[in-house]
Automatic annotation (TrEMBL):
It holds the Pfam family SpoVAC_SpoVAEB. Keywords: Membrane, Transmembrane, Transmembrane helix. The keyword Membrane applies. NCBIfam families: spore_V_AE (TIGR02839). The chain crosses the membrane at residues 6-22, 29-48, 93-112. The keyword Membrane applies. This is Stage V sporulation protein AE.
């Protein structure tokens, strides 16, 4: 059942993004920024917690989940270190995901020998 919930939540987020691309003049880059910002605000207000508990990976993997992760890590660091935590929290919270993206991207580039488009 958890796979189904993750599919529904993650798919719902993707459907909203696709509708925004189809029905508005928003570019994918602006939608990306809007989703990360929305996840940050909802995470900061503890409103995204319920969606995370219900959808698990379906809520944490898409872009709002990245914003949520930044907000939660920053709040934790601010509680621990004060104002300095506002500058270090997001970096510490996102470091694992960013490191994995760079590592696996590099690994795929070595395996598949990418070429530029003409």
């Amino acid at each position: 059942m958890s796979y189904f919930r993750a599919f529904i939540v993650g798919g719902g987020i993707c459907v909203v993004a696709q509708i925004l691309m189809d029905k508005t003049k928003l570019t994918p880059a602006r939608i990306l920024v809007a989703f990360v910002t929305l996840g940050t605000f909802l995470g900061g207000l503890n409103l995204y917690d319920g969606l995370m508990a219900y959808g698990k990976a379906g809520a944490s993997v898409p872009l709002p989940g990245f914003g949520y992760n930044l907000a939660k890590a920053t709040m934790k660091e601010v509680d621990k270190y004060g104002l300095v935590g506002a500058f270090t929290g997001g970096i510490k919270g996102a470091a694992g995901g960013i490191t994995a993206a760079i590592f696996f991207g590099y690994l795929m580039a070595l395996i598949f020998n990418p070429k530029t488009k003409e």
